[in-house]
């Protein structure tokens, strides 16, 4: 049998040093077969994946260290090996992508460049920086994967549909905003002389004939959720993962908060002494301040997180800004795939059978309250920051009521971590 490399820790990787003699050396870090740390005599460190592609031995670069962490390098190595197994040569794919981009840049304006120029021209039209960031983030998340390198004068109705259709029924409000923003970018490109003809993202007399009207689509956004019985197993899997994306997902599960609330969480919003996370109105969907009771498990998670003197975010991205929604989604997908690869069924929604997504964690929490506890449903709705009757909301917003919600969140943490007694019912607190 081939020798299996010892799985090194992040600290062991950080301490690696070149011996000072000879040329570049490589050291296997384990976790993914063929993953190596390359050390150069002048102190450079980078990641390589040694793999066989179509009968050829390849060393594929995965980025430099520490910009690419050990956890990220392992994820990139797994993704690259998945491509190789699918018959894709990652090196040739990278060359082709670069060549296509260079060709497009020489010929005309790409959609990505049009977004930058359009935003620069419209700076005064935005009320604040947050709105501008939301505008860009929506395009980055949903439009860029398909349209980024396309020339604006070559984008057609079919290209816009390819972007919108996957989320038109499941994330209708987001899809509506996305369509309008694509239309605005292409409208700017037309006026600026980079394209001619009708706007392929226009609604009236265009996409209206190809997509169902948003108001006819069910308002309930049923995001694929982890099944209640699978939640502890999923939670154990997320805790075994390294990386800020995994920690953000762990926090989201424990607090039942929305992805954007977690990704934008600031240290000054969290009172560690009181065990309360106060999310300001400006960051809430309903634009009202929301308090979250933090369980002991959640407090322990926060205590273990690194803090950066020049960054106030609780879960900063590698380069200092907010984590993207795609980072959390990608982590969920990897956990699902890993479980399937180990012979499991993965983590899929009970009804739709689709792999669970981050927003579905809130549904799992709500189902757990309804089916496995005696906590009041209205209390769960307040914890989720859902709209409830004014009388109920007024009651649960009184100072002592957050302690009752704290008991519920503690019981939820116990269930996720497997520390609650099997089959035990949670006593209703009144």
Automatic annotation (TrEMBL):
This is DUF4102 domain-containing protein. Coiled coil: none annotated. It comes from the Bacteria. Residues 221-409 form the Tyr recombinase domain. SUPFAM superfamilies: DNA breaking-rejoining enzymes. InterPro entries: CB, DNA_brk_join_enz, Integrase-like_cat_sf, Integrase_catalytic, Integrase_DNA-bd_sf, Integrase_DNA_bind_dom, Integrase_recombinase_N, Phage_int_M. Residues 109-190 form the Core-binding (CB) domain.
